[in-house]
């Protein structure tokens, strides 16, 4: 929620992360503190790799971290590790509160259909360009969904 409500071009999350960490320390929220430190670590790692942190880069980092937690939860559930499921779920909640809003499948389908409608012909060769256009509006859009829509028009 923080990311969605307070982020603009001048104030990106990486500029606010230290304040959020300090707030988590004051409130003695260990899960939030641990998760925020993981996020900061990922941001620092990207910067050391020479990547400039932009809204899109931050969004990709958070989206990847959310995806990793979801996969870990599924694996821990299948292994009956409820203690680890609980820990990962708490981290996931913090990550989701900071991550940008995910586009729904319907929004992605509608945007893809709109792009396809503006084209004269559509082939699977256009997939990359169509996906790039969809991701301009929805940076976290799933290529799988876009692919299904394009295939249905070929």
- The chain-level mean pLDDT equals 86
CATH superfamily label of the largest domain? Uncharacterised protein YqeY/AIM41, N-terminal domain
> What proportion of the residues form beta strands (DSSP E)?
under 5%
The major β-sheet equals: none
Poorly predicted segments: 1-11
CATH topology of the largest domain: Hypothetical Protein Yqey, Chain: A, domain1
Helical amount: over 70%
Euclidean distance between termini CA atoms: 39 Å
Query: What would CATH call the architecture of the largest domain?
Result: Orthogonal Bundle
E-strand count: 0
Strand-pairing-aware structural class? mainly alpha
Give the tally of structural domains.
2
Over all CA atoms, what is the radius of gyration?
Answer: 18 Å
Order of helices and strands: HHHHHHHH
Count of helical regions: 8
Q: Any idea what the shape is?
A: globular
Determine and state the CATH class of the largest domain. Mainly Alpha
Question: Can you describe what's shown?
Answer:
This protein has 154 residues and is mostly helical. The protein folds into 2 domains: 2-98, Hypothetical Protein Yqey, Chain: A, domain1; 105-153. Helices cover 74% and strands 0% of the residues. The chain contains 8 helices and no strands. Helix 2 runs antiparallel to helix 3 and helix 3 (30-48) packs across helix 5. The chain is globular. The model is unreliable at 1-11 (pLDDT under 50).
